[in-house]
Design a protein that fits this description.
Helix content: 55-70%
Number of helices: 10
Subcellular location: Cell membrane
Strand order of the largest sheet: 2-4-5-7-6
Domain Histidine kinase: 121-328
Structural class: alpha+beta
Transmembrane segments: 12-31, 37-58
Order of helices and strands: HHHHHEHHEEHEEHHEE
CATH superfamily of the largest domain: Histidine kinase-like ATPase, C-terminal domain
Pfam family, one: HATPase_c
Shape: elongated
CATH topology of the largest domain: Heat Shock Protein 90
Strand content: 5-15%
Radius of gyration: 36 Å
EC number: 2.7.13.3
Low-confidence stretches: none
Length: 332
């Protein structure tokens, strides 16, 4: 600690001594021959400099002891010291830095916990299609290719959800904003999921203006719409019912809605369905929900500047809407 103090204050220690020595030399050259007086001035300067720096050393003793002692915990940096205004400002800065550190650690911990929970749920969910495929293989009769295809689709959708969840952490690096033709994109998604509709005896009704274009990221929005359609099919237990996919243009906004005629969401769950891992009452009925689909959709909408709106009535149906905010002509 002493060496550190001397190295820090070496200039202020030597400067007054050098000034006193030069003053004595000037007096001597000017003809003032009293050696005792000059020696007295020099000694007084040295003593006063020593006393001043000893006082400064005492004031900084706790500070030097803290920075030269290996810390045992991060909280050691929050130790209160009766220090100079400069050190007080430094302590305040360190406290603010510590808060930022805690926030970053908490964010990383939450992300790690979210990934772990999601992977555990996903692995558990994947056991079902894998077990079904294994049973088909073990049967002596001919394998039903349609059934295998259905299970493979479930695996594919689950894998896509895992990839999208992982990409959330590097969202900005995977972003590509462009003008997207809404009608063509929705029709392509419906065509990709046609077997899902046929298998569940549901009818997709697409009513989207052919001229509508939105500014967004095509890949992320495709995932979101696919998630809405998958949920609509999953919770539509009545055969021959319809799933409506419509668009609406209002000043400064283009809205895309996916509406089903399913069991609906209980009012107590509406505000919580976008939380991570929340499956709710309906999720417990099907046993296939990971509670991540709407969470990812909501996160993506917020980061893209879109608005997600969910309306539902039990035994009537659910409508999920993405509002694409569009700048009107003339706005800067």
């Amino acid at each position: 600690m002493t060496k550190l103090f001397v190295r820090e204050h070496l200039l202020t220690i030597l400067f007054p001594i050098v000034i006193a020595g030069m003053s004595c030399l000037l007096f001597w050259l000017d003809g003032y021959g009293s050696v005792n007086t000059m020696l007295y001035v020099f000694i007084v300067t040295v003593v006063l400099t020593a006393v001043l720096h000893f006082y400064l050393y005492l004031r900084k003793y706790k500070y030097y002891r803290r920075i030269t002692t290996p810390p045992k915990a991060m909280e050691d940096m929050l130790e209160k010291l009766y220090a100079s205004p400069e050190q007080s400002a430094e302590q305040h800065y360190m406290k603010q830095l510590y808060k930022l550190y805690q926030q970053e650690v908490q964010s990383l911990y939450s992300a790690q916990k979210r990934h772990l929970q999601f992977m555990n749920g996903w692995v558990h969910q994947m056991k079902t299609p894998i077990a079904v495929i294994e049973l088909m293989i073990q049967e002596q009769d001919r394998i039903d290719s349609q059934s295998v295809s259905e299970e493979m689709e479930r695996l594919k959708r689950a894998l896509e959800a895992v990839l999208m969840n992982a990409r959330l952490d590097t969202f900005e690096e995977d972003l590509r904003i462009e003008r997207v033709h809404l009608s063509d994109m929705v029709k392509a998604i419906v065509n990709e999921n046609k077997r899902l509709f046929i298998r569940n005896q549901l009818y997709p009704r697409v009513e989207i203006d052919e001229t509508v274009e939105v500014t967004t990221d095509r890949k992320w929005v495709q995932f979101i719409i696919t998630q809405f359609i998958t949920n609509a099919v999953k919770y539509s237990f009545t055969p021959q019912s319809s799933i409506w996919i419509t668009s609406e243009r209002t000043p400064g906004r283009i809205s895309l809605t996916v509406k089903d005629e399913g069991i609906g969401i209980p009012s107590s769950d509406i505000k919580r369905v976008t939380r991570a891992f929340f499956t709710g009452e309906n999720g417990r009925k099907t046993g296939e929900s990971t509670g991540m689909g709407l969470y990812i959709a909501n996160e993506v909408c917020e980061r893209l500047g879109h608005k997600l709106e969910i309306e539902s009535e039990q035994q009537v149906g659910t409508s999920v809407t993405i509002h694409f905010i569009e700048e009107q002509e003339g706005e800067s």
